[in-house]
Design goal:
Low-confidence stretches: 13-38
Largest sheet: 6 strands, antiparallel
Strand content: 25-35%
Order of helices and strands: HEEHEEEE
Strand order of the largest sheet: 1-2-6-5-4-3
Mean pLDDT: 76
Helix content: 25-40%
Radius of gyration: 23 Å
């Protein structure tokens, strides 16, 4: 049987590899945070009357956001990475909007015309 031969690695190489891995992780985390921040409108509010709580743009009334959630939960499940376009009406004005839903992990982001933006927890 043969024996296992190991070659000692210089300590400087190990430190450089560790530093590089930590740097890449930090850059990926910052990029992910920046991407999430870019998806959130500057002016937003929370609609907490229902379950789940809804994070919506300032142009999105809570009644419209609730309509989006009700529409989604009364239709076939949306799987992570998939999209769907729905029609939802704003109760106060009875204006109908086409809203695009995107499932990202355990959240759905809904976007539509006139600054409509909603984000909420969704487990399918």
């Amino acid at each position: 049987m043969g024996s296992l031969v190991t070659t000692p690695r210089p300590a400087g190489l190990i430190r450089r590899l560790s530093f590089t891995a930590a740097t890449l992780l930090a850059v990926a985390t910052v990029a992910g945070s920046a991407q999430a921040a870019a998806l959130t409108p500057a002016a937003s509010h929370w609609c907490r009357a229902g379950d789940p709580p809804l994070h919506a743009s300032s142009q999105t009334p809570c009644a419209l956001a609730a309509g989006v959630v009700n529409n989604l939960f009364n239709s076939p499940a949306l799987t992570p990475g998939s999209t769907r376009t729905i029609s939802v009406s704003e109760p106060a004005t009875r204006t109908a909007y086409r809203v695009r839903l995107v499932c990202r992990g355990d959240h759905v982001i809904a976007t539509g015309p006139n600054g409509i933006w909603i984000r909420f927890y969704y487990a399918g």
